[in-house]
Design brief:
202 residues; mainly alpha
């Protein structure tokens, strides 16, 4: 590497150092709050895993709320669009999204069963695609990991559909609980790392 390039890299790193130091100082000052947030996520995940049906309803209501907000925003956006043909089409899409969100909130159990069937089908399709991709990548290293991931996805989707529609009463809550646990562990680890870190590598 030439001397000029090395000097430019050194200056670039030096210019980023103050910003990194600021972020590090903020994280270290708030590490207790970060750990507390992670602990809260872990408690939420544990509660969800112990009450998968209630967690499923909560997950469906959350999805319904997101659909209602998205649909309302699309309708508002439609009034600001031109030409009118495009605005009407955009408004129709927003109205359908809004209606779907209201229907999901109104019938959460039916929605949970429907979403679970969709999740199972997507897992199976994704597993098949991953295994096919792994077969195409046999000349590369570690292709077996892709194949294993695809097989696990396929098996998980098959298990979900094998117990459908009963699986619709707990699968969404189970996914929610596992997701909260992983997020909580991640936040706790970050908070503890921020407590002891002297600097963040650039």
């Amino acid at each position: 590497m030439e001397e000029g390039e090395l000097e430019m890299m050194t200056r670039s790193e030096a210019s980023r150092a103050p910003h990194t130091g600021v972020h590090t100082a903020r994280c270290r000052a708030k590490w207790g709050w970060i750990v507390a947030l992670g602990a809260l996520f872990i408690l939420g995940g544990a509660f969800a895993l112990l009450n998968v049906f209630a967690a499923t309803v909560v997950a469906i209501v959350y999805i319904a709320a997101a659909m209602v907000v998205a649909g309302a925003w699309e309708i508002i956006t439609a009034f600001q669009m031109r030409p009118w043909g495009r605005a009407v089409l955009w408004g129709v899409v927003g109205a359908m999204t809004l209606f779907a969100g209201v229907a999901t909130a109104r019938f959460p159990i039916l929605a949970a069963v429907s979403f679970t069937a969709l999740v199972g089908a997507l897992l199976i399709a994704g597993g098949v695609i991953k295994m096919a991709l792994a077969y195409q990548l046999r000349d590369l290293g570690r292709w077996e990991l892709i194949a294993i991931a695809g097989a696990l996805s396929f098996v998980l989707g098959a298990l979900i559909l094998a117990e459908w529609p009963a699986s619709g009463l707990y699968v969404m809550g189970l996914f929610l609980g596992v997701n909260l646990l992983f997020e909580g562990v991640g936040w706790v680890a970050m908070g503890l790392a921020a407590k002891t870190a002297e600097r963040i590598a650039v």
